[in-house]
Amino acid sequence: MPLAYTLPSNLSPATVANTSSLLRIVALALISGAAIASRLFAVVNFESIIHEFDPWFNYRATRVLAEKGFYAFWNWFDHTAWYPLGRVVGGTIYPGLMATSGVIYNVLHALNLPVDIRNICVLLAPGFSALTAWSTYMFTKEMKDESAGLLAAAFIGIAPGYISRSVAGSYDNEAIAIFLLMFTFYCWIKALKTGSVLFGTLTALFYFYMVAAWGGYAFITNMIPLHALTLILMGRFSSRLYTAYSSWYAIGTLASMQVPFVGFQPVRTSEHMAALGVFGLLQIVAFAELVRAHVSSRHFQSILFGSVIGIGVLGVFAFAGLTYKGWIAPWTGRFYSLWDTGYAKKYIPIIASVSEHQPTAWPSFFMDLQFLIFLFPAGVILCFRELRDEHVFVIIYAVVASYFAGVMVRLMLTLTPVVCVAAAVAFSSLLDTYIDPVEPDVLAPSTQATEAEVPAGDSPANAPSGSATTSKKAKKAAAADASSSGLASGVLAAMSPSGKSAKPRGIFGLDTRIVVIANALGMLLFFVLHCTYVTSSAYSSPSVVLASQNPDGSQHIIDDFREAYYWLRQNTPQDAVVMSWWDYGYQIAGMADRPTLVDNNTWNNTHIATVGKAMSSPEEVAYPILRKHDVDYVLIIFGGLIGYSGDDINKFLWMVRIAQGVWPEEIQEPNYFTAKGEYRVDDQAAPAMKNSLMYKMSYYRFAELYGGNSAVDRVRGQQVPKTGPTLDYLDEAFTSENWIVRIYQVKKEDLLGRDLKTANSFDQGKKRKKSKPLARRKAVV
Amino acid sequence: MRFLRKLLLPVLALASLALARSSTGDSVLILLDPSLKKENFSVFFGDLENKGYQLTFRSPKDATPEIIKDDVAQFAHVVVFAPNTKTFAADVTPQALVSLLSKNTNLLLALSPKQTPLTSLASEFSLILPPPGTPLISHFPKRDTPATVIPVDAPAAYDIISPNLPPVWFSGVPQALGNNPMLVPLLKAPTHAFASDGDSDSGADALVEAAEKSGEGLWAGSSLSLVTGFQALTNARATWVGGVEMFSDEFFNKEISKGVKSGNRQFASDVAAWTFQENHVLRIDTVEHHRVNETLPSETYTINDRVTYTAYISKYDSELDVWEPYSGIKDLQLEFTMLDPHIRTSLPPVAGEPGKYSVTFRVPDRHGVFKFVIDYKRKGWTYLTSSTVVPVVPPRHDEYPRFLSAAWPYYAGAFSTSAAFVLFVALWLAGDDREPKKSKGAKSE
Asked: For chain A, what is the domain count?
């Protein structure tokens, strides 16, 4: 048998095995290091700070947990949020993230390592990304082999699609959820393969952890039943499936109901019904198998036919009846919005207003996954070649996650792991094929097809050492099953379909190998460069602190948010209520420590609509709303001066829409557009727009800044009127350095009982119109 | 700051060894128009001084003493007897006078039929004055005085004016009242009086016409006010008097009928007493709240707790210059509010404990941030407002009932299943092991 290059032959199999396992450990350690290190750009470029919006709440909750203990956290009623409704925090969050940090915090303190809770929170996501890499390795190992596992671990470690949610400081549920997702899937595959109750229970335990950590647990809740159902339909029912699924479902469901936020949902809502249905179906199928073992096949056919129809009809009726009776909650709006992307905009604007709920743009697939997205289909096809039970899982996962990633930007996160797994399978098959030194034997064409099937070592690193075992195994395999279609040979067959069967197929010579492998390594190299670049430039911004560049190229930090929040913290009474759009609720609570009307936990649409109404109404309409809610300060974000496009004027239409949903008579979206249907803020702006509180607060005294020159809003690119709006019911209290954050104080009622507009014009010395005594009922003549 | 002032002012008053009569201080600035002689008002000013007030006189055009210096009001009360002054010194603007009210300084202002800055200021207090040069006139009862000098009955309005006063002489401009609840009309015009530009009844036709147009623009009849009190949100008081002559010695001594002196002197004293916050002054000393059977206030309450709320209210006694507990309010109400009042209940005085008002109620079955609100606003009296924020929280995880009788079927189900499982395992382990061997053998064959 000719070899493309010679391999050392004096190594014992034990040495080879030991060396390769050592190399694997080293490789995994390096991958973990890379995964953690590439997530630290945010800390290096900026500082150790909690990012964005939701993490600020998680951080605040974790602090309560660390300071006051678990039970205080469990019963925490946050009376500063959703003023004056308050928020029962324990019952409205997934506590897994905080509990994890709390455990780490307590363990470290028990070891006399006084680590600040903030640093634990900041570094939790990078730490768990290393675990994610490891669990992806385990998962992929079940799919193909260790070398594919290592590749998958490396991919997931630095893929921007996952980094975007797990940089240091991005202290969100997803930080630990992806690890839990992958590990639950790994346990499920393992349980399915071995039919072990132990792994089934492990699946359930990690499923419980996942339920406690992230609302996305519903993905597992539906993936595993879908997999099981597919296997049954494929006629692959086995006692292993029965054991794995039953132990997962029974224990997992009972455990998940212990999370207060989930409660009875697993038995009451439509989203969870698939799992219950498949559980029931499995029992029926298992029973049918039992019957089949005891009854002749013809009888069995008729029994099966009757019972399948009967049970199906019964099940559908029962489901419909229960839904009708209200025992099972119908699908929620969030669910519908997964199928109809226009649904949310029409019926639940509050969901549609979140940018991460928008459909994904095509370029972001490349941005987040680079060359993995091209290898992904190849990997899925390779799964079809072998199609063991676990390959079915990857295929289903790939199809479902691809769809969801297309619907919502946010769900790119669930797609990333399967892309990494599939791409790793494809990539490692490629490497296996081309690193394998065995050349097709021209003289013996009958065996060559199987030559390449040989498991050719674990990775490029230890491939050369495998020769001794390789050739032996190859012969054995060839002898045992000459026509077996292994993974690699399948690829080859697919790659060279034109080749005649008589002609020897395979790779000849060293040059071919070197070209392909160098090309592949080049792809890997570019992938690393791309990931590093994207991570450092796009995903490491804390969004609390903004960065821009000075003319000389140096970095200029725009720190308006913290400036404003600290102003609130230092200059306002502890119980001063701050009204802002809900995006900033968590940050105000976390950094300014002041009560807020609405925040990012958007549970009460009416309350948000109230804020929207106040923002989009004229002052005199808004004022009673502000007073009723005891609002002392109104905080808005205005980017017109420096061109920060994520400001409140750009979000304003969502406020209008959400308010319109509740008060359709008072707020109408078309009124905020010009007659031509344009959204303008300049002279031609619609009257409703010009009179709205949001417009007035945004452009109050803005024109003065330009000292008589035409004032230009740099976000909208429009000239704003020279005589800006006036405010009668609010006082400007604070405007940050770059005018990004503006804070207004709500005036108290006039001490003479006038409306504040009149009072204000009196203070400015304007003459009041003479009035006459009020008319009374007409005198009877 | 205001609290400090409240503490400081009585102390300062004592230090000056004066008989302080007002609850807010005894320094009075009188802006007196030079055309009005001080001697003509000697009785009124003398009465004030006898009560213990320190009067400072200043012409409206003088620059000193300033009424507000460094944003601090320099006097506890300001009397503006300048009905004819068209231009005031720079520091006496209508805006400055209004800001005095926000600094808890009381105002007594006199109007006249002439158009002055005060005329336009009056409209800020929801007073609607007739056009310039139209004083109140009345031809009844028949008397030897001009038609603009009118005897007016002075009923005891809101207990502020002493009862059974003889009629008082009035000459000046009437005010129609806007619908502002802060207004306290102290003296109403007689039914037969009206505002007209001169003694001749030339405007009578216009009046009749206006009366037919449902009374719009009609300055006539008993709905007009002649002396109007106004209590601002800060509890500072401002009183508008239609004519400064009411306070003159001449009107004080003028006889209403043979041998009966007018009630002007007592009336003026009563008006000044109310305006300078000598009477009808209340305050909430403290409020307390706690669970029933506890004494200390709780930081949060759980839904359905029974809570006791107590308020201590004092009234200012000008005779002794002390605050005394006061149980005389019969219609005090307490609200327990989150956006809307969830509970509105009367807050009755506790018998036997003067000044204490208390009520016990059940907290609603709704969590959120609630407020105990007292909002007591009665004409003539100080406003009593108090708002205490307390969060109402759901029960803790260990405060729910542990075992529910309704759940017994489920408990039974769980225990029976567990028992059956144990039994099954025991039977399985202890059972006969021949059969599996047999089947194994069968398979291997």
From this structure: 2
CB atoms within 10 A of CB A181: 27
Does residue A519 sit within a domain? no
Label residue A456 exposed, middle or buried (CB < 10 Å: 0-12, 13-18, 19+): buried
- Residue pair B365/B324 in contact (Cβ under 8 Å)? The answer is no
Torsion, Cα A700 A705 A709 A710, to 10 degrees, reads: -40
Q: Which residues contact A396 (CB under 8 A, 6 or more apart)?
A: A223, A226, A227, A230
User: How many whole angstroms separate alpha carbon B203 and alpha carbon B140?
Assistant: 17
Q: Which two tokens stand for residue A564?
A: 């404003």
Is residue A459 pLDDT above 50, yes or no? no
Is residue A71 domain-resident? no
Chain A CB contacts of B370 below 8 Å: 84
- Would an 8 Å CB–CB cutoff place A675 in contact with chain B? no
Chain-wide mean pLDDT for chain A?
84
Which of B211, B232, B396 lies closest to A75 in CB terms? B396
Cα gap A358→A338, rounded to integer Å: 10
The answer to whether the CB of A374 falls within 8 A of the CB of A381 is no
> Looking at A270, A299, A331, which one is the last position of a domain?
A331
d(C-alpha A84, C-alpha B337), whole Å: 10
- Contact flag B211-A779 (C-beta cutoff 8 Å): yes
Q: Do A752 and B182 touch (CB under 8 A)?
A: yes
pLDDT digit string (tens) for A634-663? 999 998 888 888 888 888 888 898 898 889
Nearest to A84 among B95, B223, B338 (CB): B338
State whether residue B231 is helix, strand or coil. Answer: strand
B282-393 maps to which CATH number?
2.60.40.1930
Domain that residue A246 falls in: 199-331
Is residue B393 within a helix (H) or strand (E), and if so which, with residue range?
Answer: strand B384-393
Percent of chain A with pLDDT over 90: 37
CB atoms within 10 A of CB A91: 16
What is the domain-level CATH number for residue A734?
3.40.50.12610
Q: Which of A754, A762, A773 sits opposite B128 (nearest CB)?
A: A773
Pick from A172, A152, A156: which is nearest to A58 by CA? A172
Check the CA dihedral B90-B94-B97-B98 and report its sign.
negative
Closest residue on chain A to B211 (Cα):
A779
Q: Where are the beta strands (DSSP E) in B292-383?
A: 301-302, 306-317, 322-325, 333-338, 340-346, 356-362, 368-376
Each residue's pLDDT tens digit, B60-72: 888 888 888 888 8
Q: How far apart are CA B132 and CA B196, in angstroms?
A: 10
* Helix locations, A638-745, DSSP H: 648-662, 687-691, 693-699
Residues from chain B contacting residue A753 (CB–CB below 8 Å): 126, 180-182, 233
pLDDT tens-place string over residues A184-204: 999 999 999 999 999 999 999
Taking CA atoms, what residue in B is nearest to A773? Answer: B217
Contacts of B101 in chain A (CB under 8 A): 751-752
**What does the alpha-carbon distance between residue A612 and residue A580 come to, in Å, rounded to a whole number?**
9
Q: Which option is the CATH number for B2-275: 3.30.230, 1.10.287, 3.40.50, 3.30.420? A: 3.40.50
First vs last Cα of chain B: how many Å apart? 101
A306 inside domain: yes
List the domain boundaries for chain B: 2-275, 282-393, 405-444
| Cβ-Cβ contacts under 8 Å, A759 against chain B | 124
CA distance B96 to chain A (A): 9
Residue at a domain's end among A331, A351, A379: A331
| Model confidence at B425: pLDDT above 80 | yes
User: pLDDT tens digit string along A142-178?
Assistant: 988 899 999 999 999 999 989 988 888 889 888 899 9
